[in-house]
């Protein structure tokens, strides 16, 4: 199953939040499968870097924790891409055109429209996001969705269908 993670889901891997345990299950599955499973857009990387930086500037995490979260994000992304278990989707003219259409159809920001365009273009089978409005848009586009903050059981079922891992937690900042 191809699972698309939006930025709100990826952040949960590197900063402890409600729903982090659900995202951990998805990453644990990457260790145990030989096919690309998780997808996200190259746009996500910048957004997640920004989200971690915002948490630092708000005082939620210290400078050392910020650096560690960014190091882990970069390291895991490189590792799983090299293992061919994570696909980082490029942003091309087709994605940007679809995103413009989503902006007008759903009245969302460019960043959210790009997430939706990337997920649909990649034919993801599950769209994982903690953004309620974006989840509603994804459903309207015919995507199966999961909110890591609320749908832990659904994510477990999706993983069990394919991976049957027991799930582990990662240390977060």
Keywords:
Rossmann fold, 173 residues, single chain
Mind explaining what this structure looks like?
The protein has 173 residues and is an alpha/beta fold. The protein has a single domain (3-162), classed as Rossmann fold. It has eight helices and five strands; from the N terminus they run βααβααβααβαβα. It has helices spanning 7-14, 20-32, 42-57, 63-82, 93-106, 110-121, 132-140, 152-162, and strands at 3-5, 38-41, 86-89, 126-128, 145-146. Strands 3-2-1-4-5 form a five-stranded parallel sheet. Strand 4 (126-128), helix 7 and strand 5 (145-146) form a beta-alpha-beta unit. Helix 1 (7-14) packs across helix 2, helix 1 packs across helix 3 and helix 3 packs antiparallel against helix 4 (63-82). The longest helix has 20 residues, at 63-82.
Order of helices and strands: EHHEHHEHHEHEH
Secondary structure class reads alpha/beta
So how many helices?
8
Query: How do the strands line up in the largest sheet?
Result: 3-2-1-4-5
Count of beta strands: 5
- Could you tell me the CATH topology label: Rossmann fold
Could you tell me the mean pLDDT? 91
Separation of termini?
Answer: 29 Å
Q: Please, how many domains?
A: 1
**Cα shape:** globular
Topology:
Layout: E1 3-5, H1 7-14, H2 20-32, E2 38-41, H3 42-57, H4 63-82, E3 86-89, H5 93-106, H6 110-121, E4 126-128, H7 132-140, E5 145-146, H8 152-162
Parallel strand pairs: 1-2, 1-4, 2-3, 4-5
Helix pairs in contact: 1-2, 1-3, 2-8, 3-4, 5-6
